[in-house]
Amino acid sequence: MPSARPQERPRHLKAQLRRTERRRKLEAVALVAPLFVFLAVFFLAPIGLMLVRSVDNSELPSVMPDTAAALRQWDGGGLPPEAVFASFARELAAGQRDRSLSGVAKRLTYEIPNMRSVLFATARGLPDAPEGTWRQTLAARNPAWGEPATWAVMRRAAAPVTPYYLLAAVDREIDASGSVARVPADRAIYLDIFARTFWIAAVVTLWCLALGYPLAYKLASLPPRISNLLMILVLLPFWTSILVRTGAWVVLLQREGPINETMQWIGLIGEPIQLVYNRVGVYVAMVHILLPFMVLPLYSVMRGISPAYVRAATSLGATPFTAFRRVYLPQTVPGVGAGCLLVFILGVGYYITPALVGGAGDQMVSYFVAFFTNQTINWGMAAALGSVLLVATLMLYWVYARLVGVDRMRMG
């Protein structure tokens, strides 16, 4: 028995170590679990709901389930069979009685502009029995029910999911033959809006980089006592509402504002120029608001770069510019990439600033997302625009991750 105790002691220590490690893991999970729950409820779930809403097509199936099932079984050629017309007439009359046709009318109007009036005019006073066949009865009440194009739209609306909103968000549609085609030129607006959004965000990002890089460089080279004080001034805009800052720029940039008066006083201009309600105002206000998001990543990276590297390069015969370009600048690339990515992503989603200081031709995608959400109540279109913007942002982040990964491999 005494000889077995030394053998049992390592086993006891291993079991105790496993219990300790398990307890530490459980404590770590308990500490981060609230964060994961918060992200799942308030971040991932809304994104998931937005993606679902962008393809949701439940208006007609929820109100006319029998008609939707019959339309899905129809091959889509010509006019549907009489059973579809009969089912549609029965559920149309029922929807008129219980006032549930609004959602169906709104969904059909997205593809055929006058379908709301056609649907409600047909539903009012619809007879209980057909005059001949239901096909003839419905076509007599409105010729639209005798056209194959109308029933092609009905068949697309009967599916539980639809690509309609996502296609419309990139100026595409499904034509009469069922193929994806470009929308007419007078309706093709969203690709231009996305191009405008990315262009404004890119210009703002470049301006923030041009202004933020030397500022971060100076802050990183100063003693901590002075740099910390100046950093407070950089962070000062965070303590003011974006709406207040944007409103202040409207006052400063207007034709009778202080900026125009100052430029006239020093002789730069002879008469006031338009600096607000145009692209200039959007650039100025967005750069002012987003500049700290560029300075902070740059400063955090530059603070960790030892000045001995540049001094060593100059002691070996390099000029100050060559030492900066060959030694210092490559080490700040992660900060430049992080700052540009952060500013660009924030820029593409801006709404308040372009809406207040920009003109009609300066509105970005977020303006139209708000328009479809709050005014036309077309949540499918709003979700589709947001989904396209999300995909573009994820692609940008993927490119950034690839570039940073390649850069780190080269440095390694």
TrEMBL record:
<dbReference type="Pfam" id="PF00528">
    <property type="entry name" value="BPD_transp_1"/>
</dbReference>
<keyword id="KW-1003">Cell membrane</keyword>
<keyword id="KW-1133">Transmembrane helix</keyword>
<dbReference type="InterPro" id="IPR000515">
    <property type="entry name" value="MetI-like"/>
</dbReference>
<feature type="transmembrane region" description="Helical">
    <location>
        <begin position="280"/>
        <end position="301"/>
    </location>
</feature>
<keyword id="KW-0472">Membrane</keyword>
<feature type="domain" description="ABC transmembrane type-1">
    <location>
        <begin position="194"/>
        <end position="400"/>
    </location>
</feature>
<comment type="similarity">
    <text>Belongs to the binding-protein-dependent transport system permease family. CysTW subfamily.</text>
</comment>
<keyword id="KW-0813">Transport</keyword>
<feature type="transmembrane region" description="Helical">
    <location>
        <begin position="335"/>
        <end position="357"/>
    </location>
</feature>
<feature type="transmembrane region" description="Helical">
    <location>
        <begin position="198"/>
        <end position="217"/>
    </location>
</feature>
<feature type="transmembrane region" description="Helical">
    <location>
        <begin position="28"/>
        <end position="52"/>
    </location>
</feature>
<keyword id="KW-0812">Transmembrane</keyword>
<dbReference type="InterPro" id="IPR035906">
    <property type="entry name" value="MetI-like_sf"/>
</dbReference>
<protein>
    <submittedName>
        <fullName>ABC transporter permease</fullName>
    </submittedName>
</protein>
<feature type="transmembrane region" description="Helical">
    <location>
        <begin position="229"/>
        <end position="252"/>
    </location>
</feature>
<feature type="transmembrane region" description="Helical">
    <location>
        <begin position="377"/>
        <end position="400"/>
    </location>
</feature>
